[in-house]
Specification:
Elements (H helix, E strand, L loop, with lengths): L19 E5 L3 H13 L3 E5 L2 H9 L5 E5 L7 H10 L6 E5 L4 H9 L4 E4 L4 H14 L7 E4 L2 E4 L4 E4 L2 E3 L3 H11 L8 H8 L10 H13 L4 E4 L3 E4 L4
Parallel strand pairs: 1-2, 1-3, 3-4, 4-5
Antiparallel strand pairs: 6-7, 7-8, 8-9, 10-11
Helix pairs in contact: 2-3, 6-8
Length: 238
């Protein structure tokens, strides 16, 4: 599948350089999916698949956030995180693991991780965690996306049309957000599915149509254009 294009005016991109993220993950399919999605969000993303290389790259500095898997070849995520913190490196670290349990979470946080996410997870949840950690660093980007009369507030997770709030479910908001970050561009069903649903989701891709129909009813059909065989575009409307 073609990686999503990065929109040049994406609000996740700071006025200066983009946020730089390092993904340290040995599951290559997951790492590629994360990198593709986060690049489309406006971030500059590097990927490595080995703990020692991740430590080397993170230790060299220049990153605004590290997404760090725990189960890694060469050196596990706990040791990578602990070594960085012992060296005085305070880069925000979001730990990923297939494990589940309070002990593992406590160990990850005790080594200096800033947040913790258990696989499988929804892409939209990971993005929310990334944005929250970056806001703590003081380099937050404007969270409101505007497309014609629509205002999509990424921070508050709310939508307004002509200044009036429109109630959306969490999934409806997540689908709309994927269209709003690339206004006027075609976003495929596969891209929406990959970003909004769990990575392990194996259901019918046509579920997207259900949510698009709901968004059209609530926001106005003129704002979401179907591009037959390709996907959907969010436009200002007539």
């Amino acid at each position: 599948m073609r990686p999503p294009d990065t929109h040049p005016h994406h609000p996740s991109r700071p006025a200066g350089r983009p946020f730089r993220l390092l993904i340290v993950e040995d599951e290559k399919r997951l790492a590629l999916s994360l990198a593709r999605g986060l690049t489309a969000e406006g971030y500059a993303v590097d990927v490595v698949h080995d703990g020692r290389e991740g430590l080397r790259r993170a230790g060299a500095g220049g990153y605004d956030l590290v997404v760090l898997d725990i189960m890694l070849p060469g050196m596990n995520g706990y040791r990578v995180c602990g070594t960085l913190r012992a060296a005085g490196n305070d880069v925000p670290i979001l730990m990923l693991t297939a494990k589940d349990g309070e002990y593992d979470e406590a160990e990850g946080l005790d080594t200096g991780a800033d947040d913790y996410l258990t696989k499988p997870f929804a892409y939209v949840v990971l993005v929310a965690r990334v944005k929250a950690l970056l806001r703590r660093r003081g380099r937050s980007a404007p969270p409101v996306l505007r497309v014609g009369p629509l205002a999509v507030d990424q921070g508050a997770r709310r939508v307004e049309r002509d200044g009036v709030e429109v109630a959306l479910t969490a999934k409806e908001f997540a689908v709309l957000e994927q269209l709003a970050v690339r206004p006027g561009e075609v976003v495929s069903k596969a891209e929406i599915l990959e970003h909004v649903w769990d990575f392990a989701y194996e259901g019918d891709v046509n579920i997207i149509e259900v949510y698009v129909s709901a968004l059209r009813r609530k926001l106005g059909a003129e704002h979401i254009v179907t591009v037959r065989g390709a996907g959907y575009r969010l436009v200002a409307g007539g």
